[in-house]
Amino acid sequence: MARQKSSFVCSECGLESHSWYGKCPSCAHWNTLEEIEIPRENKKAHTLNERFTPKASKLCEIDFDIEIRNDTGLCELDRVLGGGVVDGSVILLSGDPGIGKSTLLLQVCSFFCKNNTVLYAAGEESPKQIKLRAERLGIPGDNLYVAADTDIENILGHAARLRPGIVMVDSIQTMHFSQLTSSSGSVTQVRECTQLLMRMAKENDVPVFVVGHVNKDGGIAGPKVLEHMVDVVLYFEGERLSSYRILRAVKNRFGSTNEIGMFEMGDTGLSDVENPSLTLLSGRPSGVSGTCVACVMEGTRPILAEVQALAGKTGFGTPRRMATGFDLNRATLIIAVLEKRCGYFFGNLDTYINIIGGLKLDEPASDLPVALALISNLLDKPVDENVAAFGEIGLAGEIRSVMHAQQRVNECARLGFTKLILPEHSAKGVISVPGVMLYPVKNLSQAIDSLLR
Ligand code: TYD
Ligand code: MG
What is the pLDDT of residue 63? Predict the structure, then answer.
């Protein structure tokens, strides 16, 4: 019997190779190449024969319907998806264990149940466990079908029979395709199962949510190609001890990837947090040095977040630099600019930066509040609690303009901030809002002066 052809795929970067290497030639990770089998079915599809005559269509002749979006019952999820879930799309939901992925999906099911049949493929939990959770969430479950099965062909069979309005697969790592000999969760299995689900979604115009596990580095476990295959990749994040959860899109074929959604996990499941700024600022200390409020844009929405910084004498030769929720390289750069351009020295100080609420500030506009929080703690001088700031810091110590200044000013006004430190350029086009005093600044020294005044 001819040996089945095989190939090797790197689980980190997706590199395909005909031979095995201990170290991936592309991403240099060790022991990440896994053998994959090419299933017989696929081999047939790849060979050209008389019956298979490929045909490309003219763009102008392609029929299209405006993409149909469905509400999911959770406004924050709709926002992250770009205005609801699109028919025929495959959405990969990933996140740490116990963060609430299954809860989120069950809540989406409960909304879809009202008008549609819903199929929930549970590879991790028993129907009893799901029933218990549904009871807790108050889901009647009339139209909700639970398939405690891990065979992907059975799941597709259920879908063909039930014609559901939405399919949930929890999780892709537990699914297996019987034509492959490798175990569930392997690169081959995950890839093939996703491919089959993709085909089912596109052919029947049904949205499919797929849960994916994360590896120890926080990335999605399994092949990188998984992320390329699906239409939307969502990450569900949050601190274990906090009840707040943040949902962000890292890929979205139907919308922007900048939007974030905020949820609160309570006794009856997840609920939308409609006013994230207010939530993130609750419990803010007053009269303490080392905190400053940042105004950043998360997609189309301005959000206010508290930046905390601590500069303490180091016990070692080299000072420690730590940042949570903020890029460490960016923090080092800000410290360098503060030293060189403004004359504040951190050479013998450990510095810690923390963004409250598990938020990740990756917009350059958060540079200025980080610098102000550091200086405030260094000088032990609290920033007025009515002050908010935004602006990008350049290497020359200049404060560079950022977009959407007006929306940021309006958000600060809405939350009762009276002083706003912003880049001079951005302030030019801003229509002033009653109650908010603008402090346009050209460079970092001016910003620090306006703070200490
Ligand atoms: P779960 O959805 O099982 O997480 P995942 O599928 O991501 O592993 O969430 C489980 C956690 O959520 C568990 O720690 C309990 C908590 N939880 C609540 O706090 N309230 C609720 O109403 C529910 C259903 C779960
Ligand atoms: Mg789960």
Answer: 74
Does 158 sit in the ligand 1 pocket, CB within 6 Å? no
User: For 43-90, what is each residue's pLDDT tens digit?
Assistant: 444 454 555 567 788 888 877 767 788 899 999 999 999 889 999 999
Question: What does the alpha-carbon distance between residue 330 and residue 323 come to, in Å, rounded to a whole number?
Answer: 10
169-190 pLDDT per residue, tens: 998 999 999 988 888 888 888 8
Q: Are 245 and 98 in contact (CB under 8 A)?
A: no
Burial 199-209 (b: 16+ CB within 10 A, else e): ebbeebebbbb
Give the residue, by CA position, lying nearest to ligand 1 atom 25. 269
63 touches ligand 1 (CB under 6 Å): no
The whole-model pTM stands at 0.80
User: Is residue 268 within 6 Å of ligand 1 at its C-beta?
Assistant: yes
Contact 209, 236 (CB under 8 A): no
Residue nearest to atom 8 of ligand 1 (CA): 98
Question: For a substitution probing ligand 1, which of 103, 131, 247 has the most ligand atoms within 8 Å of its CB?
Answer: 103
Q: How far apart are the first and last CA of the chain?
A: 85
Ligand 1 lined by 101 (C-beta under 6 Å): yes
Helix (H, G, I), strand (E, B) or coil at 197: helix
